[in-house]
Amino acid sequence: MKQSFHYDFQIAEAFVEQHQAVLACVLKFDQEGELFGDGERNEIRLFDTLDMKVNVKRFKNPNALNTLVYRYLRPSKAERSFRYAEKLLAMGLGTPRPIAYAENKQWHGLKDSYYLSEHLDCDLTYRELVHDPNYPEHEQILRAFTRFTFKLHENGVLFKDHSPGNTLIKKTSEGYDFYLVDLNRMEFRTLTKEERIYNFARLTPVKDMVRVMSEEYAALAGYDQQQTFTTMWGHVSRFQEKYHRKQRLKKKLLFWRKR
Questions:
Q1: How far apart are the C-alpha atoms of 232 and 154, rounded to whole Å?
Q2: Distance set, CA 18 to CA 8, 13, 14, 51, 100 (Å)
Q3: How far apart are CA 83 and CA 14, in angstroms?
Q4: Residue 159: which of 176, 172, 145, 139 has the closest Cα?
């Protein structure tokens, strides 16, 4: 078991009285908890504690330079995730409830860090809409998602990781609720029209989906619909071209890896 004195903890006020249970999720991370996802980049484990299912995300150890940057110059991904979640909730925007973050700080830099939040069982993510055009209420969900994104922008939230897997979607009796995850890359400020439209670039390569989103967003923002679609589709196309070019290059450089 890791030694607790290595860790700096920040616990949300609602969970301070249960701090021992919160700390145990980090200190027993390698021995307990249910693995969630593939753990390719960051490892996530689920713990049944605090009368809920707790999602504990251990961030991949930063490279040599970032160990110093996150130790002395910039908040870690774990701290940013926690702070940004608190900001979103204060604005009335959906994200899993933040519980705590922990950092293993040593004089020579930041080692591992953790973000703890309430685990939400969602009905789908945006990714299902991309892969299944016949998903029930496909267009209705897509338009609701666009309204959610508009609300983010109106509140001055630029979610830089606005990508298919980073919005959890839950069906309710009144429609759909949306919850952002992977929060560490955000900016809070007034957004330009170009930044708003570009924020859709990573979501889907499907032209019909882009048409629906651009139509809904233009109506909400008072933009010209055709111009909004042309601009949004241009951003999507350039992102897709850049992404696939990068994948082809990676394949050439890593040809020696076994498939």
A1: 18
A2: 16, 10, 9, 11, 11
A3: 15
A4: 145
Express the helix, strand and coil content of the chain in percent, nearest 5 each.
45, 25, 30
Question: What CA–CA distances, in Å, run from 108 to 6, 64, 149?
Answer: 13, 10, 40
Q: Residues 79-112: pLDDT tens digits?
A: 999 999 999 999 999 999 999 999 887 766 678 8
Rounded to a whole number, what is the distance in angstroms from the first to the last CA of the chain?
A: 35
What is the phi/psi pair of residue 179, to 5°? -135, 125
pLDDT of residue 126: 97
The CATH T-level fold of domain 4-118 is Phosphorylase Kinase; domain 1 (3.30.200)
How far is 209 from 234, CA to CA, in rounded Å? Answer: 14
Whether residue 67 contacts residue 112, with contact meaning beta carbons closer than 8 Å, is answered with: no
Q: Give the predicted TM-score (pTM) of the model.
A: 0.89
On average, the pLDDT of the chain sits at 90
With vertex at residue 34, the alpha carbon angle to CA 30 and CA 37, rounded to the nearest 5 degrees, is: 100
Can you read off the two tokens belonging to residue 179? 């919850």
Structure tokens, 199? 């924020």
User: For the structural domain made of 124-249, what CATH number should be given?
Assistant: 1.10.510.10
Indicate the domain borders of the chain.
4-118, 124-249
Rounded Cα gap, residues 197 and 111, in angstroms:
37
Range with lowest mean pLDDT among 4-18, 39-53, 182-196, 217-231: 4-18
